[in-house]
């Protein structure tokens, strides 16, 4: 049985939808900025259409990216970095827990209202269930991490240090830029969805340009763009 195209009810072409979602998620642009960029290319759409596209197709693209990356490579279980960042919504402080590997690949994102043992335990269980147990877990000195790891029987692999967690701290910066462009979030559900989509898109296009020569960087960038254009085409 032939799989139906997810774009079958849309008059606009799938290429334009993919481009709009990539601009919205990857770059620190507002919805109206994306609307203006598409208009410059001769595409007349409203910013609300761009919002609808990323909300509907963003999770679909992110899921396909994760499937391709998992099937194409083995998950790294050497070292995992954990950290939480503050996100203000409607005057209340929430916490976005994030896990990255030693290369900066974003593994997991999880939003909670509290920063206690229960939240840390649920986040780490979720990360271990999906990506396995690493040989080392690097955290800051938040006590919730140590208590949660002790309950998981992994207290011996925890590492803390002044600069050891710079890998995950630096990975917060692209998301912070997107948060400012979107004028912050208003609902936990929207934050959780966008964090998951942004992580997958960031992993796809993050080429670590400082570690490669210019020719290799151009090849990696072209491969990532070709993979993005092939999403949901089968």
Structure, explained:
The chain is an alpha/beta fold and 234 residues long. The protein folds into 2 domains: 14-73 and 207-229, no CATH class; 79-186, Ribonuclease H-like superfamily/Ribonuclease H (Nucleotidyltransferase, domain 5, 2-Layer Sandwich). It has 8 helices and 5 strands. It has helices spanning 14-26, 31-40, 47-72, 117-131, 143-151, 166-181, 188-205, 214-229, and strands at residues 79-89, 92-101, 106-112, 136-139, 158-160. A 5-stranded mixed β-sheet has the order 3-2-1-4-5, with helices on both faces. α4 crosses α5 (143-151). 26% of the residues are buried.
Give the neighbour order of strands across the main sheet. Answer: 3-2-1-4-5
What proportion strand?
5-15%
Uncertain spans? none
For the biggest sheet, the summary is: 5 strands, mixed
Number of strands: 5
Count the DSSP helices: 8
What labels describe this entry?
alpha/beta, 234 residues, globular, Nucleotidyltransferase, domain 5, five-stranded mixed β-sheet
Itemize the secondary structure elements and their pairings:
Elements: H1 14-26, H2 31-40, H3 47-72, E1 79-89, E2 92-101, E3 106-112, H4 117-131, E4 136-139, H5 143-151, E5 158-160, H6 166-181, H7 188-205, H8 214-229
Parallel strand pairs: 1-4, 4-5
Antiparallel strand pairs: 1-2, 2-3
Helix pairs in contact: 1-2, 1-3, 2-3, 3-7, 4-5
């Amino acid at each position: 049985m032939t799989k139906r195209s997810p774009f079958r009810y849309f008059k606009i072409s799938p290429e334009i939808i993919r481009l709009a979602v990539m601009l919205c998620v990857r770059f620190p642009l507002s919805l109206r900025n994306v609307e203006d960029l598409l208009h410059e290319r001769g595409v007349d759409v409203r910013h609300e259409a761009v919002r609808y596209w990323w909300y509907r197709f963003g999770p679909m693209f992110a899921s396909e990216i994760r499937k391709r990356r998992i099937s194409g490579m083995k998950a790294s279980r050497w070292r995992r970095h954990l950290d939480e960042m503050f996100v203000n919504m409607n005057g209340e402080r929430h916490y976005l827990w994030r896990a990255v590997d030693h290369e900066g690949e974003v593994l997991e994102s999880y939003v909670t209202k509290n920063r206690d043992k229960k939240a840390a335990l649920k986040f780490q269980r979720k990360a271990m269930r999906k990506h396995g147990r690493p040989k080392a877990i690097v955290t800051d000195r938040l006590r919730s991490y140590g208590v949660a790891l002790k309950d998981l029987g992994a207290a011996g692999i925890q590492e803390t240090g002044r600069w050891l967690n710079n890998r995950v701290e630096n990975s917060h910066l692209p998301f912070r830029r997107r948060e400012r462009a979107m004028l912050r979030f208003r609902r936990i559900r929207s934050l959780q969805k966008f964090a998951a989509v942004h992580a997958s898109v960031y992993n796809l296009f993050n080429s670590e340009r400082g570690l490669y020569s210019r020719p290799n960087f151009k090849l990696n960038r072209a491969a990532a763009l070709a993979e993005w254009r092939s999403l949901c085409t089968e």
